[in-house]
Amino acid sequence: MWPVARVSEVAARSVGPKAGVLRHPIQRVLRLAIVTIVCGFVMAGCHPSPLPFKNVDITGANFARDFALTDQNGHARKLADFRGKVVVMFFGYTQCPDVCPTTMTDLATAMAMLGSDANRVQVLFVTIDPQRDTPQVLAAYVPHFDKRFLGLYGNAATTAATAKEFKVFYQKVEGPTPTSYSMDHTAGSYVFDTQGKVRLFIREGDPPAEIAHDLKLLLALD
Q: Chain centroid to CA 126: how far?
């Protein structure tokens, strides 16, 4: 798991904040290789549905089953709290310079494309940096992209357990000062249907229109 996630973050960093803009041919080759590896990883043990999804179909996966975290407002949260909604879950941190804000912006754009149906979708931002991402920080950061988005956090042990359940890699990269570190992490989002079953893996950089397309398919199943 470690090499796949580590390389996934390297790919995200090499692409930069403008998804799909590759400044050198080697980056195009690298991104294709990473997508192939990550897709093979998340597809293991899955039984894709016949729906024409644009993103990676991981229906039937035996991971990403649940979580026990706290939201930015201090409320304990688990997956069942959002039953009846399609849930999009992304792991990141608020001081991320490129991948995280780009992903959150893409998700907000996809929500806008859904119109009133967006009220039946819940986007969750799970911090992998609870040391700095306090409830106050999450409350200021997450709703900035869409007021309906929720930030989730746990202590160090809960964060590690949640990341393990979702096969998400993260690791602190020391900076020049104790508080200026960065975080390497898996770049991608999980999507659950209205019954709380994981259905999709959205790769970093996938277009908002494709995300909206797949969210509409899942909403239509309800």
A: 8
CB atoms within 10 A of CB 53: 19
Q: Write the single-letter amino acid at 105.
A: T
Beta bridge partners of 88: 123, 191
- What pTM did the predictor assign? 0.81
Residue holding tokens 């797949």?
214
Residue linked to tokens 């990473």: 34
pLDDT tens, N- to C-terminus, the chain (222 residues): 322 333 333 333 333 333 333 333 333 333 333 344 444 555 555 777 788 999 999 999 999 999 999 999 999 999 999 999 999 999 999 999 999 999 999 999 999 999 999 999 999 999 999 999 999 999 999 999 999 999 999 999 999 999 999 999 999 999 998 888 999 999 999 999 999 999 999 999 999 999 999 999 999 997
Q: What distance lies between CA 175 and its chain's CA centroid?
A: 24
> What are the residues whose beta carbons fall under 8 Å from the beta carbon of 160, sequence distance 6 or more?
none
Which DSSP state fits 207?
-
Q: Determine the Cα–Cα distance for residues 69 and 116; give it in Å rounded to an integer.
A: 28
Query: How far, in Å, are 7, 12, 30, 124 from residue 35 at the CA level?
Result: 10, 10, 9, 23
- Collapsed DSSP state (helix, strand, coil) of residue 81: helix
What's the token pair of residue 119? 């009220």
Helices (H), the chain: 2-15, 25-43, 99-114, 135-141, 156-165, 208-220
Structure tokens at 23: 């400044």
